[in-house]
Amino acid sequence: MSRLTAEFWVSAYIARLRLQDIPAFVVQHGDDTAGVVFVKLNTLDGQAQVFQRSFDLMSDTRHWAVLAEGAEREVDEALARQKRSDPDLWIIEVEDRDGRHLLDEPGLSD
Question: Is 6-95 a CATH 3.40.50.620 domain?
Answer without folding.
Answer: no
